[in-house]
Structures are given as C-alpha cells and as structure tokens.
Amino acid sequence: MHQKFDISGMSCAACSARVEQAVGKLEGVQNVAISLLSNSMTVDAAETVTAQTIIAAVEAAGYGAKVADAEVKKIRAAQSGELPKMRRRILVSAAFLLPLMYLSMGRMLGLPQLFSSPLWLAAAQIVLLIPIVAVNFSYYTKGFGHLFRGSPNMDTLIAVGSTAAIAYGVYASAKIVLALSVGDTATAASFSHDLYFESAGMILTLVTLGKFFETRAKGETGRAIEALMDLAPKTARVLRDGVETEIPVAQVAVGDIVLVRPGERIAVDGIVIDGTSGVDESALTGESIPVEKHEGDRVAAATINQTGFLRFRADRVGQDTTLANIIRLVEEAGNSKAPIARLADKIAGIFVPVVMTIALITAIVWLALGKDVEFALTCAIAVLVISCPCALGLATPVSIMVGTGRGAQSGILIRSAAALETLCHVDTVVMDKTGTLTVGKPQVTDVLPETGTEAELLQIAASMEAQSEHPLAEAVLDAAKKRGIALLPVSDFSAIPGRGISARIGEKTYFAGNAAWMQEMGVGGCDADSLASEGKTPLFFAEQGGALLGVIACADEVKATASQAVSELRRLGLSVIMLTGDHQLTADAVGRRLGVDRVIAQVLPQEKESVIRKLQAEGHRVCMVGDGINDAPSLVRADVGVAIGAGTDIAIESADVVLMRSDPLDIVSGVELSRAVMRNIKMNLFWAFFYNSLDIPIAAGALYPLFGIKLSPMLGAAAMSFSSVCVVSNALRLRFFKPTIRKSKEDLSMQKLKITGMMCEHCKSHVETALCGVAGVTDVTVDLKNGTAQVAGGEVQDLIAAVKAAGYEAVAE
After folding, report:
1. For helices 665-699 and 342-368, what crossing angle results, to 10°?
2. If DSSP codes are grouped into helix, strand and coil, which group holds residue 778?
3. Helix (H) or strand (E) segment spanning residue 242
4. What is the per-residue pLDDT for 745?
5. pLDDT(257) > 90
6. Contact 580, 587 (CB under 8 A)
7. Helices in 317-453 by DSSP H: which ranges?
8. What is the pLDDT of residues 349-378, one digit of tens each?
9. Structural contact between residues 27 and 47, judged by C-beta atoms closer than 8 angstroms
10. What are phi and psi of 806, to 5 degrees?
C-alpha cells in the first residue's frame, strides 16, 4: 500500500533521517522516502500498517504528520506560506540587532558610547537581546526538544550554541554586579567586553536570514511542477440535458460531453465524438507542431484546441488525467532518493551528535592547553553554529527536483531518482525498431501474386488481415481500400504469435505469415531474401495443401531523426543495438541505413526480455527503448526502461522514463539531462563535504597555533546560513539545461519565411497547420506581429507552396 504524508517540524537532513528511521522500524513497512523540499513522506507498507500507526511513529520522534491531500501540493506555495513569517522575524531581529551591535562593538570602532557604566551596558544589551530570542524561540523549543529525545538536529546546534553565548553573557553580567558591589571597576570594565550577547543575537538573525533565502530558493525548484499545474483550465463547458453549461473543472464527470471552441484549453482527457481540429500538445510533449484530431482520437487536458470546434466524451477526470499523472510522476521522482545520496544520508544521521561531541572536545582541549574560558567557549560555539547538515541533506533532492521538472517541460518524464542516476551510467541502448526508429505505420510496397492477379491476392490477404491486430495488417487493409477491393467473409480465424495467422474463406483455409512458418507448413518457394535485402518485410500467403498464393511486401518508413539520434548516442559513447522481429536481411538493411552498432533480428515478442538479460549477463548496463506496451517485459528487465511516444498509463507503469513525443532525439536529450543532473549532484555533495570538512577544524581553532586565526561565532553562523543557499542555487542552474542535439538540429535545418496576409490568430493557426503538413518539417514557429515563420526541416519551395495553398503569400528571407 502506497501512502503519502505531510511532515512538519523538519529543519535539516538529520531530521529527515530520524523520521525515516522511526517509520522504517515499523513492522510491515517496506520503503520510506522523505523530501525536505516539500516536507513530505511516502511510505510503501503492508495493508496492516495504518496511517495512524505511521503518524504515531512520526510524532513519537518529535515531529508532526498528517495524511497528504489527494491533490499534488505546490512546493512554492507551501514554501511561500513560511516566507512572510520568516521575513517578520528577520525585520524584528535586525531592528534590535543593530543597536545591540552598536553597544557591543562601538567602542572598538571609536564610536560614541551611550552608557559609561558596565552594569547599564549589560542591562541594555540584555533588553535588546530579549526580542531577538523571543521571535526566534522556535529554535529553542525544537532544538532542546529533540536533544532531550536523543535525536539532536540543526536546531539543536543553534539552540545550544546561542544558549552557551547567552549563558556566558549572563555569567559576565553577574561578575560585573559582584565587582561593582565591592568597588572593583577594573574587573567590571573587563567583563563588559565579554558579554557575548551580540554573538547570540547575530547567530539567531543570520541563521534565520539564511533559512529565508534557502526557503525562497527551494520554492523555485517546484516551478516546473507549478507551471504544469497552472496549465489546467479552471472551468469546462459541458452539455447536460441538452443544455450547454460552464462548470468548475472539478465537477466534470466521466461520460460528460465537453465542448471546446478554437483557442480554448481542453479541461479533461477524452475521446473526440464530433469535429476536426489541430491541437497544440506542446504543454505535455514539448512538440510545437499541432496534432490533427478527428472523431475517435484522444485529447488530453491542458492542450489547446487551435482551429476547429471539438466535442468529446470525458473518460479521465480529476487526478486521473494525463496531466495529473505527469505532475504526480515528476513530484514522486523529486521525492525519491538516488543511490548516490545514501552516503550523505548515513552521515547526516549521525552528523549532529558528532558535531556536539567535537564542540565539547574543542572546549576541553583548549582549557587543558591553558586558554581561558572565553577562548574555549568561543571555539566550541563556532563549531556548533558553523556545521551545516542542511547542505548534505539538500545536495541531492534539489538537483533531482529541478532536473526532473526540466525534463517534464521537454516531454521527458523520469519516474525516480534511481532511474535518473542509472540512465547516466548505461553503456548500451537497445532500441525496438517498429515505432521507435521507424514511424510504425508500414505501407505496402509490392504485391507479387504467384497465381492469379494482384487484386485477387489483395482481396484474400485483406480479408484475413481484417481480423488481425498486427501492424502489417493495417498496411494491407489500406492498400486494399485504396484499390476499392471488397472484403470476403472470414471464419475460424486464428493468430499464432511470432508466426502468422490462419482463416477460412468459403470452403478453403488460408495461411499468412513469415517464411519460417511457411516452411513449417510445408509451403515451398518462399524466398524472402531479395525483398528483405531492400529493407522490406515480406508476408507470404498460402492455401491449405501447401500452394503458395503470393507475397506482399511492406516497408516501414524510418523516422526523419532516427539516424541522427543513433549518431548522437554513439557520440556520447553508447553502443546502439536495434532489436526487431523482422527477417535478418530486412533488419540489416535498416540497420545499415541508421548506422547502429549491432542488429538483433527475428526475435519474438516474448524473447526480447531474454535478449536484455543476456546483455546484462555480459556486463552491460542496458537501456531499453520501446513503446511501453508490447515491450513491457523487456522494459522492466532493462536497467532503465524508456517508453517512447507514449503517454498511456501502461507506459508510465512499465517504464522508468517516458518520452511523450515519438522523436528518437529525445532519448539523447534524456541521457544528456541525466548526466547534467548527476554532475550537479556531485558538485553539491563535494561542496557539502568540503565545507564541513574544512570549516569545522577552522572553527575549532586548528589554525590558531600556527597563524593566530580564530573564527568568530558570528562568522560561523553566516557561513552556515549561506552554505545551503549555495547548494540550492547551484541546483537551480539546471532550469536552464538545453540538450546540445536540439541546438544542432535547429541550426542545421531552420528556414525563415516572410508571410503576408495574416490578420488574426486564426490566420496564424492556418499557416502553422499548412507548414506542419509539409514533408520533413519538425518544428514551426509563426510570429503574427512580425509576419514571419521559422520552420525546421522541409524544402523552401514546398513551404512557400503550402502557405500559398492556405491563402497567404510567402517568400524566403
């Protein structure tokens, strides 16, 4: 059972480690994943583990928990709720800190003094410190609360460090009172320099300021998810009892008839029942070319109806829409943990107790070496406040969240952090031919009857294939339809996976399939080599008794970007293997054209998984690319399964990565994105480890014996506050990731046209649709204001002709 909870009270990686440990110990819990970014937790557990049991375990650890809402939470909205409170705390703290700093440090800078008496100076500093402590008192309640429970966190470090400074200041104030009571003004003046109230105030203020910047930066990591969420319209126009009614999208039910006019966003998923239009699906796929929709086609929420009026029946609403699935997928990926984060998690779990031990040892060592209490206490406080478990805890999740969000904007959906990391390390890409490297819609190229006429062979073939779901069946049916050939009644139809079909027409039984099955059936003369060597797939037709009727050859067009995708994958150092059930000669012809490293042909659907397993046994890390439905077993078996051109639930469930478009170049983009994210994570982890490894010894006074350098607790607090900000800011750079392949594709094939006659958005839409229909075009951008169009692919003459046919004028620029 998969459950999700909102967690409150977590402030650092030590907190998340404590919660994970508390829930993970429950009997029946299989997996726990906690996100510091969204303050959420997902738990996979047996049905016997109730939500109340999990909540009780979290509360026993000192934190709050509640079952998460069904809707995906907006990270930035959640973070922004805290920002006004933190801003007020900063303003109050700064307002009292400035005069406090003036009183404590002014003498060193030669500034005029407001109090000549040490006692009044100490009293004034205490009065100024009280509001700072009051507005930041949560550090003490949380910090000491977790300390007493035996699970100290970052708040504990701040609470103990600032309390130590305050305690020493109170001690110094007491010494001033005692000294003045006996007339010892010299001692009183000496202790007035060692109050350390300003250190406590500065620590609290700087930590809060750092938390403010960190929270604001963390909120930016969810921008991609929020952008997706904002795409969904708030209302929908439905037909109920024959009356057109506009209702909130949350009230749309499965089965409702939804009406969409040109320019409107589609509210829910459904099937078109009336109308024709071009639909902009770029919000889901990243592809700018509109997709033509007709009766029976599927439409998805958040896409834009451009040119025509559509009427469709809703079949997925609310949290079941494609958009909701994408958002959920991206959020879960951001909340998941990559294997590379395990070391950081282990260290974060013991980090705070170790730091407190180091601080105690620091104080003891300096006292043993003859230093005074002030020196030892200053070094111990510096160690406490400079240590930053947050940087360790944030190093991985912020990069994962931003990276997966950036991928979603480009139509690349990554299910988990583990998949993202594994994709970075694969060395072999196995690509299913049909639908991945080819268009997936074969066409008949040759009709070669052995006896009778082409029409007779096509009639028998189409009548049989009408019952089949094989991709080549549609090609045969289309060929028969174009020639106006009527179909014959068929009975006793049977399909044999990987072999062919059989059926009875009239008084005769016929067989159709590949050469291997024909040989098994005792049919002679089935020579497939000549057609296969041309990249064509032969279908043999015979009647019972072994008489060959003829052969029909089909060919599947290779996708325009397939060859370039293979070339780019090889440039990235990956071995590319094409996997297909086609005849070896057919597959070899396609493989040579694409430039793959290896071709594995004549593989039955159920054998694809064993091919992946064999490659893994040879030591390869394998990425399998398929359509996510027929290739589900091999996608699951591969180290990383990639479903291309699929936004279905089956694809999302079976694959680790889902490419919303059918463009093979997105595979390259996915690999590049994974490598960029992993580089970013390694940079963050290096910074987090380097920062703590270097600064803790310096704060402890390691440089003092040689160089006389001793770190002030105030500088330590400033360094700690901004270390996590640096980690988050570095991760945010991933928002600007652009795959190199897209740059080269645009640079190589972009055409620019000057168009006249466009008057409105409908004109713009007509021009876009016309240009998208030109062969070879992969991207179209029309600028209505400037009267221009930029087109990737296609011949200039064809582009101009298409624009003119749409009723406008165009010239090449």
Report:
1. 10
2. coil
3. none
4. 45
5. yes
6. yes
7. 322-335, 342-368, 373-386, 389-394, 397-409, 417-425
8. 677 888 889 999 999 999 999 998 888 988
9. no
10. -85, -5
Tell me the C-alpha to C-alpha distance, in Å, between residue 594 and each of 236, 427, 474: 46, 19, 25
Tens of pLDDT, residues 583-608: 788 888 888 888 999 999 888 767 88
113: left (phi over 0), alpha (psi -120 to 50) or beta: beta
Can you tell me the distance from the alpha carbon of 743 to that of 33, in angstroms, rounded to the nearest whole number?
37
Q: Are strands 257-260 and 235-240 parallel, antiparallel or unpaired?
A: antiparallel
Look-up of token digits 């020579």? 527
Whether the Cβ atoms of residue 647 and residue 658 lie closer than 8 Å to each other = yes
List, for residues 275-297, the tens digit of each pLDDT value: 988 888 776 765 556 778 889 98
Counting DSSP H helices and E strands in the chain, the numbers are 31, 30
> Does residue 629 sit in helix, strand or coil?
coil
Distance CA 419, CA 642 (A): 10
In whole numbers, what is the pLDDT of the chain averaged over residues? Answer: 83
Distance CA 301, CA 323 (A): 6
Tens-place pLDDT, residues 209-240: 877 876 776 666 556 566 667 777 889 999 98
pTM summary value: 0.67
Instruction: Say what the pLDDT of residue 721 is.
Output: 66
Q: Is the dihedral of CA 803, 805, 806, 810 positive or negative?
A: positive
| Distances 272 to 240, 293, 585, 744 between C-alpha atoms, Å | 17, 8, 41, 37
Element (H, E) at 751: strand 750-756
> Is the distance from CB of 132 to CB of 96 less than 8 angstroms?
yes
**Residues forming the active site:** 432
